[in-house]
Write a structure and sequence with these properties.
The chain has 369 residues and is α+β, with helices and mostly antiparallel strands. The chain has 2 domains: 257 residues, 2-Layer Sandwich (Alpha-Beta Plaits), CATH 3.30.70.1230; 105 residues. Helices cover 42% and strands 17% of the residues. Strands 1, 2, 3, 4, 5, 6, 7 and 8 form an 8-stranded mixed beta sheet that branches. Strand 7 and strand 8 form a beta hairpin.
Length: 369
């Protein structure tokens, strides 16, 4: 019979948001994606010196001897899976929720039991899709050691834990520094000080030096930003389901209302400026060609180059189009354009088009697999 003992460890709990819906839409495709994502998670967990304790369905539990490495592993997992999801249509993206707790657990062989595990599971259940929620015991250990920011979410009601567990959302995925000017909400009343730091976007990529966090400590007696469980003992994750969409957003310095994301507007404005610059250059080339006309329309070639450049910019902005398939389509249009502009009675473009079509078909088959 395995030896039973107690130990202090960091529990990492993860599952897939809307897994039942994904399975209902495409069982085989969802299972293949889950295996691919779980392999990526296993690799990153091992890289950060953790071990997988158990897996079931879409869920996973791991433990780490280091609290800092557990949080870093969670951030790396969410960042890597975000990159994989960017290649998929929005309705088939597989988003994970992660909860992390540092606590005393019962170890029996390779299995772990106890409130330390249960708290991690409850934290995971309250996390937004693609997000990370940690307990106060984790926060106390990592707040000055990981270059990310934290939002205080209030007291999480947990069965058999009187008073609940203070929880925090880890800020990841903020990409626009102009949205980083709000003061981050942090630890509940543990003193009357306030701290603020330079903008940060994700672990390891922020503008601040490692170990800096941006926090705001509410004054003693101030109400927490996120309310505790609803009346009648409603679980924390149910009471806050409607507000979970605001987690990880900036809060205005003068209040608690989240600001609307500005990344889409900025990207659209930047794209329009590029189009305007390309249009001006194209018009200038046509004008020069006409003013120096000698019977040759040479401007058609730089115009083709500008069209390709704009097509690449456009493809880069479109997150709903597979990057590889988009590049193959641009290459095909370029080949056809060159053939037509140099047409001498032979449509030679059919052969490179056939090669590109085969490459696109292989890419599609590999994605489906």
């Amino acid at each position: 019979m395995p030896e039973t003992r107690r130990k202090l460890t960091t529990i990492f709990c993860a599952d897939v948001q809307d897994y039942s819906r994904l399975m209902g839409a495409d069982e085989e495709g969802t299972l293949a994606t889950l295996k691919r994502y779980r392999d990526a998670m296993a690799r990153l967990i091992e890289t950060h010196h953790g071990r997988i304790v158990n897996t079931w369905g879409d869920g996973l539990i791991a433990e780490f001897p280091s609290v800092v490495e557990a949080v870093r592993a969670a951030i790396d997992v969410q960042n890597e899976l975000a990159g994989l999801n960017a290649e998929r249509p929005s309705d088939t993206q597989m988003l994970l929720r992660i909860g992390i707790n540092l606590g005393d657990v019962i170890a029996e062989g390779d299995d772990l039991y106890g409130d330390g595990v249960n708290i991690a599971a409850r934290l995971q259940a309250t996390a937004p899709a693609g997000g990370i929620v940690i307990s106060n015991t984790v926060y106390d250990q990592v707040r000055n050691k990981v270059a990310v920011s934290f939002d205080f979410l209030g007291q999480l009601e947990v069965k058999n834990i009187e008073g609940g567990v203070a929880s925090y959302a880890v800020r990841i995925g903020a990409r626009d520094d102009s949205r980083q000017d709000g003061i981050r909400e942090s630890e509940p009343a543990r003193g009357g000080t306030r701290q603020a730091g330079p903008p940060q976007d994700a672990y390891g990529n922020g503008a601040a030096a490692p170990g800096r966090t941006r926090d705001r400590h509410p004054t003693p007696g101030a109400a927490p930003t996120q309310p505790p469980a609803g009346a009648g003992g409603t679980p924390r994750h149910e009471a806050s389901a409607a507000s979970s969409a605001t987690w990880g957003r900036e809060r205005a310095p003068g209040g608690n209302r989240p600001q609307a994301p500005s990344g889409t507007t900025s990207a659209a404005t930047f794209g329009n400026r590029k189009l305007a610059v390309i249009a001006v250059i194209a018009a200038a080339l046509v004008a020069i060609n006409l003013l120096t006309w000698d019977g040759v329309l040479w401007a058609v070639w730089p115009l083709l180059g500008l069209a390709i450049v704009y097509a690449l910019f456009w493809l880069r902005r479109r997150k709903d189009i597979n990057r590889t398939l988009g590049l193959l389509a641009i290459a095909a249009l370029t080949v056809v354009a060159v053939n037509l502009l140099t047409f001498d009675g032979i449509f030679w473009a059919v052969w490179p088009l056939l090669g590109l079509a085969i490459a696109a078909a292989l890419r599609w088959v590999l994605r489906r697999g």
